Amino acid sequence: MIEVENLTKRYAGRAAVRDLTFTVKRGEIVGFLGQNGAGKTTTMRMLSCFMPATSGTARIAGYDVFTQADEVRRRIGYMPEGNPLHLDMRVREYLKFRARLKGLSANRSRERVDIVTEQCGLGEVAGKVISTLSGGYRQRVGLADALVHEPELIILDEPTKNLDAHLTRTVRQLIKDVSKDRTVFISSHLLPEVELTCTRVIIIHEGSIREQGTLDELQRKMSSGQQVIAELAAPVPDLREAWEHLAEVEHFDIAAAEGNFHRCSLTPRAGVDLRPHIFELAKARGWTLRELTRTRHSLEDIFVHVTKKEQEEL
User: Cys-Cys link to 287, which of 124, 195, 234, 270 (CB 3.0-4.6 A)?
Assistant: First the structure.
């Protein structure tokens, strides 16, 4: 659905984004992650035909973003950061206006406005002036605008920015609902939201892509430092001797637990899953193994690791 290759945008000689290369497949919900100023909005403006690139290529549904912009616009729904709306218009009036601007006939505009009004939960406020609506309802109007012409791809730039926790949850569920039959490309610096919403993530930092993949794929890349917790009924000296001689263990801590059990926190060497080694060791020595779990890194852990690593390499 989205194919980007070596996409670069410069302002007065400074690269806002440089050599971006990535793809988004049909049906995916992909999160585009980065700190403020990382280049997320610049990238989305280029993909949405609002801004030319300095160099590189981008294609959406097979159409070139820069030479076939009209074809691209028919296939995307774009909700920019800040969600600019005509505040003096009523909701239904605004959505009909936007549908007509996007090339729908008068009859089809009415049909689509009815559909997205219901889909986005705007029925109760359809006759109200947009300026009187809460932030959550305004976000719904912006999403309805992005959907009104039945796009194949929705591009959402910070759709939950400045919303409270309740409204964020509402918008998140709405995005999941409307993504069932289309592709979604969503930018955010709210990592827990992306983790709950997206099937895959792309991390951009200082204008360049640093990592991309599913959360599981990124977890595996960060296997070094991913602790394993084991609770065993064994004397501390025996545990200490075992971990010191197990080559796959890089670091360990031992703490007392209930009864004669001890809780061991073990850090593996890069790329190693310690759990089979611990299980076999406990079996061989006759130790009772009560717990054996591997901690999972959150998306925030992964993001901090990636961006910190890049800063340390500079």
Answer: 234
* CATH T-level topology, domain 2-221: Rossmann fold (3.40.50)
Strands of 82-168, DSSP E: 153-157
Dihedral sign, Cα of residue 104, residue 109, residue 114, residue 118: positive
**What is d(CA 218, CA 299) in angstroms, rounded to the nearest whole number?**
9
Cα gap 70→73, rounded to integer Å = 5
The DSSP call for residue 6 is E
Note whether 2-221 and 228-294 share their fold: no
Kindly report the number of other CB atoms within 10 A of residue 81's CB atom: 15
Contact criterion met (CB below 8 Å) for 201 and 30: yes
**pLDDT tens digits, 161-176:** 777 787 788 778 888 8
User: Would you identify the CATH topology of the domain 228-294?
Assistant: Alpha-Beta Plaits (3.30.70)
